[in-house]
Amino acid sequence: MTPRQIVIVGAGESGARVAIALREQGFDGAVTLVGEERHAPYERPPLSKGAIFGEEPPTLPYIGDAQRLSELDVGAVLGVAATAIDRVGRKLRLNDGAAIAYDQLVLATGARPRRLNLPGAEHGLTLRSFEDSVVLRERMRPGAAIVVIGGGFIGLELAAGARKLGCEVVVVEAAPRVLARATPAPLAAILEARHRAEGVEILTEVGVSGFSADAVELADGRRLKADAIVVGIGAAPETSLAAAAGLALDNGVAVNGRLQTSDADIFACGDCASFPHPLFDGRRLRLEAWRNAFDQGAFVARALTGAEDEFAAVPWFWSDQFDLCLQIAGLPDAGATVAPRDLGDGALMTFHLAADGRLVGVGAVGPLGKIAKEVRVAEMLIARRAAPSPDKLADAKVKLKGLL
C-alpha cells in the first residue's frame, strides 16, 4: 500500500532530495521535512570553498528555498529537533512538544564533526554548517596564522583556500601521510607536494596535547601560534534518534539493500546510513560524500513509491585543492593490484583491481579537464564489473572507452 504521510528527519542534501524526488515521481501524499537548522535545505560542498574564500559576501546555496518547498507542497518544520520515534504509534516527537504522525519515516540525520577530547578543545573550530563557514571567513585574513588539525579532504581544502588568501598555514596530521583514509598514496603524494610548494607547512606523525586561545600544543612539546584552529578529523554518524528507537546500528544506522532499517517502515540514507554494496561482495559501507547523499535520497524516494531494486551506485567523490582536482570512484582499498596511468600535464590515474581481476576502484589527480572524463569512463567499468588487463589500463595510448 502506498504511504500517505512520509516524514523525513534531516533537511540536508539527502533528506531534501527524498522530498524533491517524491514530488518529481508523482507522489501526492503528505511530505514533511524536519530539520534542526533554521535554514531551508542547502548544499554543503560550497562551505569549504566560496562561502569562506569567495570575494562576495556568503549566501546560502539552497537546494530548495522556502518558495520552492511551498511550490512542491513539502511541509518544512525547521529549527526544531526530533527527540523520539514512537514506532508503535507511528509518531515522531519534537523538542517543541509537537508530534508528527507518519506512515513511513526517513532518517537523513547526517553526521557531526568529531572533536578532540583535549584541554582547550573549545578553541577548535569545525566546519559543518553555514554559520561555521561565516565564523571561519572572519578568522581567515591575510597574514593570519591558521593551524589545521587533520590532513583529510576538508582540512586540506581549507588549508589551500587559506594559503591563497595569504594566511600562514600549518597542517598537523597524526598519520604518516595526509589523505591516508581513502586516497591512494601516489595521488596523496602529488597533493602534499603541491601544498608544500604553495607554502603550506605539513607536519605528519605528530599528535596534539592541547589548545589555547592562540596556540596549539603538540605532543612533542612544540607550540604553534594560531589566530584560528580548525579541527577536521572526520565525522561521526548521527544515530542517537535511531538508537533510542531500538533500530539496528553498524557504523551508522544499518540498512538493507533497499535502504530500509530493521523497521521496514523506516528508511535511512546519506551520511548516517551504512549499507551493503553489491559491487563489493556485500561489504557494508558508510559514505560521507555529496554524490552518495544525492543518489541515496533519490533512491529512497523510489523505494517509498514501490521500487524493489537495491542501491548499487558506484561511490564517487572529489576534492579541489589549489588548481588540482582529486576524484575517486569505487573503493581503491578493495584492490589487490594497482595499475598507474600517466595522463600528461602532471595528471596521474591509478586503477585498482580485485584478486579476481575486476576493476573495483580508480583515483586521479590533476587539472579537472585532464581527469574528469577518464574517471567517468572508469566509473562505468566498475559498474559493469569489468576486468580489463592491467597492462591496457596502464597504457595511456589505450582508450578507456575501448575497454567498455
The shape is globular
β-strand amount: 25-35%
CATH fold node name of the largest domain: FAD/NAD(P)-binding domain
Query: Mean of residue pLDDT?
Result: 96
Give the full name of the CATH homologous superfamily of the largest domain: FAD/NAD(P)-binding domain
Largest sheet: 5 strands, parallel
What would you report as the Rg, rounded to the nearest angstrom? Answer: 22 Å
Number of strands: 26
* SS field, number of helical segments: 10
Q: At CATH's second level, what is the architecture of the largest domain?
A: 3-Layer(bba) Sandwich
How does this structure look, described?
The protein is α/β, with parallel strands linked by helices and 404 residues long. The protein has three domains: 5-112 and 235-304, 3-Layer(bba) Sandwich (FAD/NAD(P)-binding domain), CATH 3.50.50.60; 115-231, FAD/NAD(P)-binding domain (3-Layer(bba) Sandwich); 323-403, FAD/NAD-linked reductase, C-terminal dimerisation domain (Enolase-like, domain 1, 2-Layer Sandwich). The chain contains ten helices and 26 strands. The protein has helices spanning 13-24, 50-53, 66-71, 130-139, 153-165, 185-197, 240-244, 290-304, 368-383, 390-394, and strands spanning 5-9, 30-35, 74-78, 82-86, 91-94, 99-101, 104-107, 111-113, 124-125, 145-149, 168-173, 201-204, 208-212, 215-218, 223-225, 228-231, 235-237, 253-254, 266-268, 273-277, 283-285, 316-321, 324-330, 337-344, 347-353, 359-366. It has a five-stranded parallel beta sheet. Strand 20 and strand 21 (283-285) form a beta hairpin. The protein is globular, with a radius of gyration of 22 Å. The two termini are 40 Å apart.
